[in-house]
Amino acid sequence: MKNVSIYSTPTCTYCNMAKDFMKKNNVTYTEYNVATDLAKRKEMIDKTGQMGVPVIVVDGQAMVGFDKDTLATALGIK
Fold first, then answer.
1. Do the Cβ atoms of 76 and 39 come closer than 8 Å?
2. Which of 42, 44, 47, 77 is most deeply packed, by most CB within 10 A?
3. Phi, psi (5° rounding) for residue 51?
4. Could you tell me the pTM of the whole model?
5. What is the spatial distance between Cα 11 and Cα 36, in angstroms, rounded to a whole number?
6. DSSP string across the chain
7. Cβ-contact 34, 8 below 8 angstroms
């Protein structure tokens, strides 16, 4: 099983699309709300150098934004 986390905000459309995609594919993930969690916001900026969300981290590899095909590949989903 892969270690997956997502840095997101409640109003982000692409964040919600990414979470829906992972739920539909039974991917367990940890969610961090960077709108309210300042420590996780700083961690996200340190990882990526920017404040754009979503940031999805799969086994230590961070990707900015939601690209279904890229995420599926990272997760090993056909």
1. no
2. 44
3. -110, 5
4. 0.94
5. 12
6. ---EEEEE-TT-HHHHHHHHHHHHTT---EEEETTT-HHHHHHHHHHHSS--S-EEEETTEEEES--HHHHHHHHT--
7. yes
The model's pLDDT over 8-67, given as tens digits with 9 standing for 90+, comes to 999 999 999 999 999 999 999 999 999 999 999 999 999 999 999 999 999 999 999 999
* Non-local CB neighbours of 7 within 8 Å, separated by 6+ positions: 32, 34, 40, 41, 43, 44, 53, 54, 55, 56, 57
Residue 76: φ, ψ to 5°: 75, 30
